[in-house]
Design a protein that fits this description.
This protein is α+β, with helices and mostly antiparallel strands and 222 residues long. It has 9 helices and 4 strands; from the N terminus they run ααααααββαααββ. β1 and β2 form a beta hairpin. It starts with 16 loop residues before the first helix and ends with a strand.
Length: 222
């Protein structure tokens, strides 16, 4: 059962970075606590991760370029703190997997169902999705990202991300291997799009985190 804590299905969704961040961070740490238990690790390690998180925020404060970047910095560094603390215990690959699961899984079904409900209720699902995307570009991502829009009309919205703040923060903290975990979160709302049902498709052939020169977010009417 989902609760749509992000308010996606209301039909008038407006990003609230502070609220959204609080939900994501809470879910992330709750999942990490379960991970520690599953692997028989000291539960006090979670306290150390949170302390490291705060230290990383202070050390990286100079990367903040606007208000959205402040929230995105905190979110990204939560993954770095977890990764650095879990890697000595679990090894590189298992630590990455654990951090990604803690970030993606808590709200995956909520995001998927909320997106689908929003599109189901919209008179024009394509326009509703494009409107939400543009709102998030401004309010949730901000100047830390560089967007280019080769096509923006009634049939296609082709958005290319040429600079990703998440990736920049991870590179600055020697943790670029976590960028795909940030990309994985998008799959939660992508899975809410049903081309036959909603009349448009979404394509993302690659991402910066997967080695691409940019991240294509392409919406096309069917």
């Amino acid at each position: 059962m989902t609760t749509d804590q992000f308010g996606l299905s209301d039909g008038d969704y407006t990003p609230d970075p502070e609220k959204d961040l609080a939900l994501l961070i809470e879910g992330y740490y709750e999942q990490l606590a379960r991970t520690l238990h599953e692997h028989g690790l000291d539960p006090e390690l979670l306290t150390a991760i949170k302390r490291r998180h705060a230290e990383l925020e202070a050390a990286n404060a100079g990367l903040v370029v606007d208000e959205p970047a402040r929230h995105n910095l905190k979110l990204t560094l939560a993954l770095v703190a977890g990764y650095r603390s879990l890697r000595p215990e679990l090894g590189r690959d298992r630590a990455i997997a654990a951090v990604e699961a803690a970030f993606v899984e808590p709200f995956a079904e909520d995001m998927r169902a909320g997106t689908r409900a929003m599109l189901d209720a919209a008179p024009d699902p394509f326009s509703a999705m494009v409107e939400m995307a543009k709102s998030r570009e401004e309010l949730a991502f901000g100047k830390g990202f560089t967007f280019r829009r080769p096509v923006d009309d009634d049939q296609r919205y082709l958005l290319d991300v040429h600079r990703c703040f998440y990736h920049d923060v991870l590179v600055a903290n020697s943790a670029a291997e976590l960028t795909p975990s940030m990309c994985a979160f998008d799959q939660t709302w992508i899975d809410g799009i049903d081309p036959e049902r909603h009349g448009f498709r979404f394509d993302r052939a690659t991402t910066i985190g997967l080695g691409g020169t940019h991240c294509p977010f392409h919406f096309t009417r069917e």
